[in-house]
Amino acid sequence: MDVLKWVLRILTVVTVIGPFCLAFIIYHNNLLALVMPKFDIAEIEMPDVKYISYNITLSKTLLITFNFTNPYNAALTVKGFSGRVFCYEHKVFLGNFSLTKESVILPPRKSIALTLILNYTDVGKRHLKSYHHEEEYVYVDLGFKIDIQGVTLQGNYTNFGPVPSVVDG
């Protein structure tokens, strides 16, 4: 019976402590590399985003459509895309935008048109009426958050547009 206890103890030590020892040997006492592997950020391909057009609905809602190209050999699921809109020229906060659909699947190495709904704030509407009343179109800066398959990326897109400067309602 004592032999069986010792065999089980040795087996437990080997199966529990063995992988830790192997990790120390492989990663040369650098467990951070085990948890967070190194990768070159230059090797990561970014999706290609190109402005297509805008549309104003009957309810005076502004929809912005753009082309989003998936650079990878695997399908990607966009679970959320939202952010803030600023006047490109004056850097004034104009409103918020979000994806019109709850989630979108991007096929591998393909492009898909995504549509955003833009909701102007009252301050944004006043700014457009005061400073851009003679202009038909303006360009905006977008500060965005995009959730692709549970990974949230944040960024900025400057000089996006043209989008209409006339806002009714």
Essential attributes:
169 residues; alpha+beta; 8-stranded antiparallel β-sheet; 3 helices; 44% strand
Outline of the structure:
This protein has 169 residues and is α+β, with helices and mostly antiparallel strands. The protein has helices at residues 2-26, 31-35, 122-131, and strands at 48-56, 62-69, 76-87, 93-99, 104-106, 111-120, 137-148, 151-164.
3D structure, described in words:
This protein has 169 residues and is an alpha+beta fold. Helix content is 24%, strand content 44%. Strands 1, 2, 3, 4, 5, 6, 7 and 8 form an eight-stranded antiparallel sheet that branches. β3 and β4 form a beta hairpin. The protein is elongated, with a radius of gyration of 26 Å. The relative contact order is 0.16.
Question: Could you outline the blueprint of secondary structure elements for this entry?
Answer:
Layout: H1 2-26, H2 31-35, E1 48-56, E2 62-69, E3 76-87, E4 93-99, E5 104-106, E6 111-120, H3 122-131, E7 137-148, E8 151-164
Antiparallel strand pairs: 1-2, 2-6, 3-4, 3-5, 3-7, 4-6, 7-8
Query: Helical amount among residues, as a percent range?
Result: 10-25%
Radius of gyration: 26 Å
DSSP summary, beta strand count: 8
Low-pLDDT parts are none
The portion of residues forming beta strands comes to 35-45%
- Note the total helix count: 3
User: How would you describe the shape?
Assistant: elongated
Biggest sheet character: 8 strands, antiparallel
Q: First CA to last CA: what distance?
A: 85 Å
In N-to-C order, the SSE pattern is HHEEEEEEHEE
Give me the secondary-structure category: alpha+beta
